[in-house]
Amino acid sequence: MIYIIGLGNPREEYENNRHNTGALAVWNFANNNKFAPFEIDKKLKALVSSGKIGKRILTLILPQTFMNKSGLSLKSAITNKKKAENLVVIYDDLDIPLGKFKISYGRGSGGHKGVESIARSIKTKDFIRIRVGIAPATPSGKVKKPKGEQKIIDFILGDFKKKDTEKLKKVFKKVNEALEVIIKDGRQKAMNIYN
Length: 195
Hints:
Helix content: 25-40%
Order of helices and strands: EHEEEHEEHEHHH
Largest sheet: 7 strands, mixed
Oligomer: single chain
Structural class: alpha/beta
Strand content: 15-25%
Strand order of the largest sheet: 2-3-4-1-5-7-6
Distance between the termini: 25 Å
Shape: globular
Radius of gyration: 16 Å
Number of helices: 6
């Protein structure tokens, strides 16, 4: 069983926020692969869908808690280190330009509250992360992060602009491909191809 969790904030008003990139990526993956519709799972405090890629069974999870409590949705699902190794967490990253993503494993949270919450809940940082860039960039691709704590908060909780949607579509297509490689051939091969 592989678990894929997309981080974001619940409720309609946050739906198109940059901070909801992980949840948007998982919706996209579910739709692309014609997974079962998401249904509320009260025990996990999440919307859950499942399906298969090849012979592997997947559970997709969209926490219905706020970002900094995302780990609550995994407490009863990821109960040991073996299960944690089959967990993929997708989330927004302000250190990566919009349109790019990186795959990592067993690293720190980089200050991301959702990832911190998950590592605390499942008592390990040994899980796969797909960090999807949301930062503006110069024409040469250099990240232009907002300066100051309030500007950063306003930016990540701001909605994607219309002009961003084309880049999002392209990056989600690549994330879907990377997920398939992770599922079929493992994280190392995916990291070699996509990082």
